[in-house]
Amino acid sequence: MEKLIALVEKLKPFFEKVSNNKYLRAIRDGFVSCIPVILFSSLFILVASVPEIFGIKLPESVSTPLWQAYNYSMGILAVLMVATISKSLTDSINHKLPKLRQINDVSVMIVSIICLLLLAVEPIKGGMAAEFMGTKGLLSAFVVAFSVPNIYKFFVSRNITIKLPDEVPHYIAQTFADLIPLSVAVFVFWLGSLVFKNVTGMMFGVWVLELFKPLFVAADGYIGVAIIYGAMAMFWFMGIHGPSIVEPAVTAIYIANIEANLQIYSAGGHAVNILTHPTSYFVATLGGTGATLMFCAMCAFIAKSQQLKAVGRASIIPVTFAVNEPILFGAPIVLNPVLFFPFILTPIANVWVFKFFVDNLGMNSFLYILPWTTPAPIGLVIGTGFAKLAFILAPLLLIMDAVMYYPFFRVYDKQLVARETAIANGEISADDEETATPADAEKEAEAIESGVAMQPAMAGAAAGNANVSEASSAAALQSEAAPEDMTERRVLVLCASGATSSMLAKAISKGAKQRGVPVESIAMAYGQHKDIISDYDLIILAPQMASMFEELQQDCNAAGVKSATTSGREYVGLTRDPQKALDFALNIIND
Predict the structure, then answer these.
(1) SS3 for 389?
(2) Are 83 and 109 in contact (CB under 8 A)?
(3) Contact 246, 253 (CB under 8 A)
(4) What is the pTM for the complete model shown?
(5) What is the predicted pLDDT for the residue at 194?
(6) Active-site residue numbers?
(7) 139, CA 20 to 30 Å: which among 189, 223, 260, 412?
């Protein structure tokens, strides 16, 4: 196992580079921008479809407008995503271009929409067909969104433009500066689509969908889902945000499958496509990547180790809502050899059981997309359209996850109890991570594990911790009494989705309120900060996004803004201590 962990750590820099790939990030950021549209459309479908599950048929005058809202949002998803993905890629390209020679991202978005329509949408009498403006056009959208910004880059970086006299206002000059790359991009996709259709007899959108259909089918099989969800867990085990690497590659499959499921179900068929966003949210990652909900519950309620008990109880609420970084870094699970196998295998087992229910027992797969923070058992039941078997599957998965984690949890809990005993007896230092736990401490730990007795030394340690806590409180009061810098400060915390970052942002704001200092802190997903960097005094990056820190530093240095990141354990500790979180931010700002 130690060799495996060493290999994983050796590969970490390579996978961090993959995570930092601008094309994968563009897909991820583009999808994040469109999540509100997807959730909005799903809300209307839930209202239109759920009553039918219980035998209530809505009047056509009610159902038709509800489906219209869905079709006019999800029905143009490819159009929306080609714009958001191309903008994200343009921002990445602009990052490496001179400040006075930047690509116009608005122009790129507009041209990308035009090129997508030319490439994938079939002309019909009186207009154009809408079929490939939605989920069927996503693969074409990726091709366009990756191509158009690079066409612009070719001309802008070489300053190939229509030059006007200096007296011409900038906004007019910019229009002409965009004219050459705009014309070339549109011409390439217009001519390319005509040639492609004459050669193959079909539009590019239809052809590329047929080309990737075997991949869609393979990804939906037992081996495919094992690779996808196993990879997500493996990356997270290394401390890298796994979904940010894996999900961009399968986003098109996710979205296409769930719409196909809904159409099949609406036509009275059996929805069988497994790979969807809700499968990730509510089956594979019960409680977050690694399916950690039941592990966290065991830490909170049956752990003998003071560390696991404290971490579990502090993490159980966020983990219930799929924010599991506190348990990942607090237990820790990341790079913990004891927990490697359940962390990797439990998500795979969950999806395999779900697939068995769908393929062999006739249960419908997911039909609706719900917010990823919906507690998993609830999301599983609602997302499958209140399928009867979902009421059996949800508790079954919880029990199965508990069984898979329990023996490894017990081993790890025993190790920590032994370590805590040794620390309390003064045999090793609390900061010593290398020294092996003495044998007598392990024997005492076994007694504690079996519930025989609480060792006096452990009790003394608990009292000592209380004294430390009191001392910390006194220090905090003393700190509050000291004069504070009353300059208004703004802190931004970034992570992959804005969930983990909100925990630290709230801690900083709470500490500021307690101490009465004017510090405001908010959280965002990485990528949403690009246009507002200069509005903040400090930007903090969550540890799972550490691969992006070099880019963040460059952006912040250019804007004269401080930047920082932390280790996983430090980050979790800061989220639980508002005063320390505030001091962490202020020390960096005032340095």
Answers:
(1) coil
(2) yes
(3) no
(4) 0.77
(5) 93
(6) 495
(7) 223
